[in-house]
Amino acid sequence: MNANANDLFRLHIIVTGRVQNVGFRAFVQEAATRLGLTGWVRNVGYNQVEAMAEGPRPALEKFAEAVKTGPRGSRVDEANEEWGTATGEFASFYVRSSR
Q1: What are the sequence ranges of the domains in the chain?
Q2: What CA–CA distance (Å, rounded) separates 60 from 44?
Q3: Which of 92, 82, 95, 65 is nearest to 9 (CA)?
Q4: Has 75 been annotated as catalytic?
Q5: Which of 6, 45, 87, 90 could form a disulfide with 38 if both were Cys (CB 3.0 to 4.6 A apart)?
Q6: pTM over 0.85
Q7: Which of 43, 47, 72, 80 is catalytic?
């Protein structure tokens, strides 16, 4: 199967580290919006942030790098990525309630 540049993918990423009280979710939302992605981001417990994003693979790869870098004052110790096929269920990229 040859991937087309227009093919849409889904990236589920969970990062662990110093991600609370550093503007992490707003940073992730801004990166996704700038890259034209849809999906969501939320806190998961004290030291984890989870995001689900959909869009073209090149944009998602840039998004993953931004999430793993984080905003100033943050520290990402671990990042787990799961890739899949986009479902098209999101209209925008938003901050979800914490889990």
Answers
A1: 8-82
A2: 21
A3: 82
A4: no
A5: 90
A6: yes
A7: 43
